[in-house]
Specification:
single chain, seven-stranded mixed beta sheet, five-stranded parallel beta sheet
Length: 437
Amino acid sequence: MSMGMVTRLMGGMVAAVAAFGLAVSAQAQEKKIKIGVVYDLTGPLAGGGSDLHYLGAKIMIDNFIKQGGVEGYKIEAVYADAQSKPDVAINEAVRLIEQEKVDMVLGFYSSAQCVPVAARVEQLKKFMWITTCISSAVLENRNLKYVFRAQPSGSQFGEMSMDFIEKNAKEKFGKDPKDLRVAIIHEDGAYGVHVSKGNEAGAKKAGFNVVLKEGYAATAPDLSALVTKLKRARPDVVFHTGYNPDITLFHRQAREGGLKFSALIGHGAGYGVYTKLKEGLGKDVNYFYNVDPISIWETNQKSLDPKLLPLIKMVGEEYDKAKPGTTIRSAHVGMAASNTYLFFTEVMARAIKKHGGIDPDALRKAALEVDVPEGGTMLGFGAKFAGEGSPIAGQNLRAAPVVVQYVDDKAYVVWPKSQAQRDAVLPFPAGTVYSAK
C-alpha cells in the first residue's frame, strides 16, 4: 500500500471518528427538555399572587437543574411575562413554542389567560402543565388531549366554602341553613365566574337564601354601587372572588360605607396573599377566610410521604431568601412548587422511562398513568387525571382545597375537620370592622 493510500485511509478514519463524535455529541445535547414558563411578572396580577407562583415554580425548576435534570435529561427554562393581559399570554405561549422551540409550557396564573392559551397550545399539539389557574372553563367539555391541571377547579373552591358555612350554620350562627342570607360577589372574568357557579351550586345544595349575586370588572375604579346593593341585601355571609387591587378597593369602600355582615369567605387569588391584604387593609383582615389548596407549611407532615419533607423545608428557605420579612408564607409559592415537582417526578420521569422521551404524546401518556395517593404531594392531596371521554379531561381528580382563617397574623386551617388546626371563629367578633355588635 502506498503512503498516499495510507494517508487517505487514515484521513478517512479520522473524519469518520470525528463525524461519529459529533453525532454522539449532538445526541447528548438533544437529551434536554426546554420548558416555557409563563406567569404575570408585571401588571396588577403580579402583586395579586402571580409573582409568588412564579417564585414557587422557579425554586423547584432551579432545584432540578442543580440536580442535573431528570432521568438523564437536562432542564432549560425560558421565562415569559404575560403582563396581566390575556392577549400577551397567548402571544408569549406561541412565541415560546414557535420561536424559542420549547418542548412544553408550564405555569399560568390567570384563568382569563388559561382558557384561550389552552386552546392555542392544544391546536399546536404541545403539552401544557397548569400549576395554578382554576377556572372550570379551562377543561370542562373541551376534551383537550395535551392540557393537564394539578390544581382543584374553581367549582370545587365555590362548593367548599358553602359546605363550610352550611356545616357551621346552626352551631355558629344559630340559624338553619335556609334562614342564612348569603351574597356572592366576584370579578367577572373566567376565574370569578366559575368560582361563583360553584358558590351557586353549593348554596342551592345547602338551601341558603342567596340575597345577591353580582359580578364586576376587576379593573373597576369604583365599587361603591356594589357596596350599596350589599347594604340593602343585608347578607349574613359574603362570598367574594377577586384579585388585587379590586379586593382592597371593595373593602375600603365597604368600610367607608358602613357595610355590616357576619363572615367573609374569599377564594384564592388576592385572598391568598396575606402580605398584600394586610398592606392594603391593615387589621381589617383579621378573621377573614380564604379557600385555597393548603399551604405546604401547614400540611400534616405525618400524613405526607417522608421524601417530601426536605423539599418543603428547602422551598421555605428559598422563599424566605427571596421575600425576607414575610409575615405569613403565601400558599401560592408552595402550590406552584408542589405542582411543578409533580410534573418532573411523576410525568416527565415516567415519559422518559416508559414512553421513550419528552414529546407531547409521551408526556400525555405519562400524565394519564399518574396515580399518586393522598399524602403523595406537598399539598396533601394525591393525583389522578381524568382521561379522554371525561367532561373534565386533564383535571386532577384528587385535588382539593381547604378553608383557612387569618387570626392575629397567622393562618389556620379550619375546614375540613380532618385537616383543621383550630376551631373557626364565626361570626366576626364584636368590635371588628364588619361586626354589627
